[in-house]
Design goal:
By secondary structure, the protein is an alpha+beta fold. It contains 8 helices and 5 strands. Helices cover about 60% and strands about 20% of the residues.
Length: about 300
Amino acid sequence: MKNIILLLSGLVLINCSKSGGEKYEVKADLMEVLQEDKEPAAAVPAPPPLAISEKLLPDENRVNKDVYTPKKTDTISKKIIKNGDMKIQVGDIKKTQKQVNEIIKKNKAYIQKEEFQNTDMDDNLTLIIRVPHKNFDALINSFSDGIGSVLSKNISSNDVTEEYTDVAIKLANKKIYIEKYRDMLKNAATTKDMLEIQENIRELEDEIDVAEGRLRFIDDRVNYSTLNLNLFKEKVRSSATSKIGFGSRFIDSLTEGWNSFVSFLLGMVSLWPFFLLIPVIIVLWKKWKSRKKNKN
């Protein structure tokens, strides 16, 4: 009897353990299902894009966060433009020009413009020279020593660091704006929005081109200084050394006298209306005088 009871108890325990395991497995399956159901629900769907027309003009609060501000590591070196003017009297233009070319080559400069004039009074050679800024002072000193008598010299320095920094910051901000407009163009909902955004992009591109051109111009003027050099040789007016002799000057004087006489005649002819008034005035004066005599 005891054996039967023990056998029945063992069977009951086995059945209970099986049923408990099944419940645990069911609970585990339900938890997995619940977790799988919860995961997609937890993911927040992306918000629908805003109407492009509402974002055509960037909001001030949003723009201020994106505006480029210079950092300590973005400090711009000094931008100084140097220019100069020199006038030098020389004994021989051709010889001096060779010396000038050697000095220019030595200082890694170049001639931007050259102009020569031969007048009755002097020979005149004008050069516009561009020289690396670090060689500017050496070039000036070389011209001041040895090639002639310096009659005038004017050197100026213009600090454009503030202007360069201002243009550079505005350029960086415009590039930020144009990238935002391009992103907005990809999500444009209507043709009107697309046209408005494209117009804003076009205007920004024009402004960026102008700003970049200004920076390139400043860099060029800073990196290469400009010197206006004038070389002249005064001609000696004497019969022994001058190419313009007495005969030539005598003919020139006759020509100038004739031209003056012709100018005088033309001036008198231009006064013909006044000459017509003179006879009229004389007749009226005589009539008035005769009437005065008759009264007396």
